């Protein structure tokens, strides 16, 4: 029996002889069922196809990105953070093979995996088992875990310190348990925020945005965006990485603040006339 994987969002499901009837992640207003219909694959099929390869890139001191080529499903990037002999895998990608595991182990392996939100749960249990690591997910998103595992630790409240200078902050928004990672020692001590889709870096890399659904363009309420910006304001960071290898290289906290102000002005009809 295989663990089926949805080809549109990359989420892996529990062992079953037949593919699931539907993908709960895609069959929801924040995602979409592919216009050609629901389809499934497995990690074995992906590996045997010899199509996919994970690329691990050094981003800055203590930070590596992991991306699958060619792009699969949502096409996100995961990050390996090396922080004072504690390695964290931030977010996850579906494709995993022996070569990737070997490279990650060479970088020191991982001590924990933490997820920003359900769109990147992907094959997190495979990664956790292969690397012998716990998975941290905010309890408010528990219902979106499709493949349960004893490795998953649901955390509650607004913050969770994983290690010295490495803290999860639940901001909500895109998902109720939507989480960002604050890495205080990153960027030569100026601080880094890794945001998944919770704060999205847009085409103009000096700006970010905040949405309930990105593929279906559903905005968040002004009040929630103001709350996110307010929470982030208190954190010391200068650089921000999203889940698509897009980076606000410097003055990132200012970018979040001015982007929230612009977003709210647009929602309230004060930004432009149309
Ligand atoms: Zn799906
Ligand atoms: Zn998302």
- What fold name stands as the CATH topology? Metallo-beta-lactamase, Chain A
The radius of gyration is: 18 Å
The CATH architecture name reads 4-Layer Sandwich
The helix fraction, in percent, is 10-25%
Molecular shape: globular
Instruction: Please state how the strands of the largest beta sheet are arranged side by side.
Output: 4-5-6-7-8-9-10
Strand content: 25-35%
Number of domains: 1
Biggest β-sheet strands, sense, barrel: 7 strands, mixed
Say how many strands there are.
20
Class of secondary structure makeup: alpha+beta
**Residue-averaged pLDDT:** 98
CATH H-level superfamily title: Ribonuclease Z/Hydroxyacylglutathione hydrolase-like
């Amino acid at each position: 029996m295989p663990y089926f994987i949805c080809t549109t969002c990359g989420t892996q499901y529990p062992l079953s002889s037949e593919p699931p009837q539907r993908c709960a992640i895609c069959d929801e207003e924040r995602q979409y069922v592919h216009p050609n219909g629901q389809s499934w694959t497995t990690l074995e099929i992906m590996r045997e196809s010899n199509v996919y390869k994970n690329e691990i890139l050094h981003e800055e001191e203590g930070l590596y990105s992991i991306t699958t080529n060619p792009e699969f499903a949502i096409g996100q990037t995961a990050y390996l953070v090396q922080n004072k002999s504690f390695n964290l895998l931030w977010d996850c990608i579906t494709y995993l093979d022996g070569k990737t595991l070997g490279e990650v182990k060479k970088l020191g392996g991982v001590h924990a995996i933490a997820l920003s939100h359900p769109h990147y749960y992907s094959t997190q249990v495979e990664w956790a088992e292969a690397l012998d690591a716990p998975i941290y997910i905010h309890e408010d998103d528990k219902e979106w875990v499709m493949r349960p595992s004893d490795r998953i630790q649901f955390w509650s409240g607004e913050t969770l310190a994983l290690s010295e200078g490495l803290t999860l902050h639940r901001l909500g928004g895109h998902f109720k348990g939507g989480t960002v990672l604050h890495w205080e020692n990153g960027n030569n001590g100026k601080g880094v925020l890794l945001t998944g889709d919770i704060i999205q870096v847009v085409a103009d890399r000096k700006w970010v945005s905040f949405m309930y659904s990105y593929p279906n363009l559903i905005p968040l309420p002004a009040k929630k965006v103001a709350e996110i910006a307010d929470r982030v304001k208190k954190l010391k960071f200068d650089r921000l990485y999203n889940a698509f290898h897009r980076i606000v290289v410097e003055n990132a906290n200012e970018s979040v603040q001015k982007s929230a102000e612009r977003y709210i002005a647009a929602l309230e009809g004060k930004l432009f006339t149309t």
